[in-house]
Amino acid sequence: MVQVSTGIAYDCDVLVVGGGIVGLSTAYAITRSAPGTRVVVLEKEAGPARHQTGRNSGVIHSGIYYRPGSLKAQYAARGAAEMVKFCAEYGIAHAVTGKLIVATERSELPRLHGLVQRGRENGIPVRELGAAQIAEYEPEVEGLAAIHVGTTGVCDFVGVARQLAEASGAEIRYGAEVRRIDRRPELGVAVLTGAGDVVRARVLVNCAGLHCDEVARLTGDDPKMRIVPFRGEYYTLARPELVRGLVYPVPDPAFPFLGVHLTRGIDGGVHIGPNAVPALAREGYDWRTVRPRELGATLAWPGSWQIARRHWRYGTGELRRSVSRRAFTTAVRRLLPAVTADDLVPSAAGVRAQAVLRDGTLVDDFLIREGARAVHVLNAPSPAATASLPIGREVARRALETLRSA
């Protein structure tokens, strides 16, 4: 058992678990807000941003999708502007390209109009387009109507994470997987890593992403949710000239997933995806990766069965697109009729850390909770990379308040 003992010096004031973009942004915000605060970041991988941060489509989201007043709406719009400024300041590859959201069926038109209204409520300028006007932006894309969102862009989020790590002044320890945590509210926390090191801190910040619920439980807090991992599979378009920028379908409001979209990245390539299928491990980037303990924990959570019961039709379609390139191509052709199955080249997949409540509710907003000497970030999937700078400031504010009151 790891123990915090009286009379033993602390290794740091704040210990951040997780070296993704949110954890590193938090470390950066702490040292900016309270210079002299000693911060250590523990990351189990050999470098930063190896999971959600480095395995997404690289989009700087505008904030148009999110419920007005939600943390996602507030932080995405603010974070997008800050992210562009941060990238420009540090010379990180980025571009503000704008994007189209395209309705391809009449049933989607009311939802498209709803996005226009939501964009206005969130302070995001949008332009409504008729079918003929779509070609002004994307000659190969077809639809009944669309909206253009000018503030959307793309960037190198891994580069951002590296810069945050460097500029934070925090001590970043890679290859440091958290194995045990002993928290004493009157003293602080002690963390045992896989390498056998013990790190003692006054306050712990949990930004462990795919493992955040497990870290919360190790701390002794009940997160009242579980991470259910969903894999998003991508293809690269062999004919990138077919797409100029970013093209999205109209999303289904019942799900936190945006659907298969087309993204011209900063490398000039066009990425297609993701779908959303259950992953058989927290880091299950393909069907071959199965971790029985993690899969068993997912299946034991009542919320997982509630999701399956309510959304089996949606899930069946996603699974079909996962195992059949032809079915995936059919979904893409709704937006881009010229594409063929031969145009789709398999690319690296990502896994979304989706928080699910016991009753099967998919947590739709960012979720940050506090415990004694601890702050837990329990739901931070997309658009968390876009919103990472304001999220980091909010988590830092809570951590510093906890530190002052300790």
- Count the DSSP helices: 11
Class per helix and strand makeup: alpha+beta
Biggest sheet layout: 8 strands, mixed
Percent of residues in beta strands? 25-35%
Radius of gyration: 21 Å
What is the terminal-to-terminal distance? 23 Å
**Roughly what percent helix?**
25-40%
Oligomer state equals: single chain
Would you identify the regions where 5 or more consecutive residues have pLDDT less than 50? 1-5
The count of β-strands is 22
Global geometry: globular
Could you tell me the mean pLDDT? 95
Please outline the helices and strands:
Elements: E1 12-17, H1 21-33, E2 39-43, E3 59-60, H2 71-90, E4 94-96, E5 99-103, H3 109-121, E6 126-130, H4 134-137, E7 145-149, E8 153-155, H5 157-168, E9 171-174, E10 178-184, E11 188-193, E12 198-206, H6 212-219, E13 226-232, E14 235-237, E15 246-249, E16 261-264, E17 270-273, E18 277-278, H7 292-300, H8 302-310, H9 312-323, H10 325-333, E19 344-346, E20 350-356, E21 367-371, E22 374-379, H11 388-405
Parallel strand pairs: 1-2, 1-12, 2-9, 5-15, 12-22
Antiparallel strand pairs: 3-8, 4-8, 5-7, 6-7, 10-11, 11-12, 13-18, 13-20, 14-17, 14-19, 15-16, 16-17, 21-22
